Amino acid sequence: MEKLQEFIDRHLMPVASKISSNKYLQAISNGFSALLPITILGAIFLLLANLQIPAYQKFIIANKFKDILSYVPKVTTDMLALYLSFLVGKSFMEKQGYKEEATHAGIFSLLVFLLLIPLGVNGVAATSKEAVTIAAALNTRFLGAAGLFSALIIGMIVPSIYIFTVKRGWSIKMPDGVPPQIANAFSSLIPAFIITFIFCLVRYGFTLTTYGHFNQFIYTFVQQPLTGLGASPLTFLIFIFLVSSFWFFGIHGGQVVMPFLTAIYAPLAIQNLNALAAGTPLPNMIVQSNWFVYASLGGGGGTLGLCIFMAFFARSKRFKTLGRLALPASLTGINEPITFGIPIVLNPILLIPFIITPITTFLISYGLTVAKIVPILNGTTIATGTPVILSGFITGGWAVAALQVILVLIQFVFYFPFIRILDQRALAEEQQVQ
Known about the structure:
Layout: H1 2-20, H2 23-50, H3 54-62, H4 65-69, H5 71-75, H6 80-95, H7 102-115, E1 119-124, E2 131-138, H8 148-167, H9 180-187, H10 189-207, H11 214-230, H12 233-248, H13 253-278, H14 289-295, H15 304-312, H16 317-331, H17 336-341, H18 348-370, H19 390-396, H20 398-433
Antiparallel strand pairs: 1-2
Helix pairs in contact: 2-6, 2-13, 6-7, 6-8, 7-8, 7-10, 8-10, 11-13, 12-13, 12-18, 14-18, 15-16, 15-20, 18-20, 19-20
């Protein structure tokens, strides 16, 4: 164990530390976090518009509420890439230490994102059935799920160019008496011109290729392969294994893995939400919310069942008290109190269930989804702190909420023989002190 710990400290810890502190990954993570209210808002309106209760649907259709509720998803979940380009650009600029220029960097990232989507929409006229082209229209396809990776890339390249120009003093300097807001606006003009001109060339360059524009190129060569990779349960299992392994060695697994997981599975979640809105079958069996709803019940390592044992069945005062204090947080997916309180970190007795339990609960849920016993999750993003059962109901209805209860019982069974050993040891120590 000591040799393993030495190997981890020497080789794995530096790598994990670099990944978790990487400014690009932090910008992506912060951008998605800031996007969460928009995502949840769109999902709520989408669920309200498509709640499959016949009497309810009849009521909202008859009273035009279905049309009213459909307004919000079209400018939220259908346009997430638009918001993300600004948020990632702003966040990346802040991470680089340029907080005063961060808003400008976000705006220019949004400008470039829109600039790279060519105008013109082709379609068929409803009356004459003839092919028509609307030259002044903006194709909305890449404003949503299909444009997420483009938004991420632009949100990091644009601030990098901005910083390059600022470091070389390529900006308009205003006299000292000019208000800061006006001075900052003028100082950003030269960087803005350089950024815009570069991406005008980029846009024109892509018109000379078979892809037609930047977004189609990124979608074909980056997003499609990655989202295809995300469709495999093996990819999801690797993420689960990595998070549990990192946590065991005291590294925040979520901070290391979550930016990658979000980037891969967020587009798949949006595809499911769009299918839900259109009334078509949900295309992706694994989305981002599978993590919180099935694999990570109670937090990394799937520890809600462990916390319940401690709170209600532990015999030692130490574990019973810790379990009861940690239970409210564990119900909402926060398990740092028991991860460091037991501790699970560097505890060889709990290593096996800490890795095997979340893998098992995910595989059970995936198998039941494939067998159509439980529905595919609708893609709604679950905010940190959403309680178990409620998270299941929001993402898949009562069947998913009921499955969560069963999975927590499975967690309890998996952790029972291991935590019981620790509980007996703690009880013996307490009796010796008395």
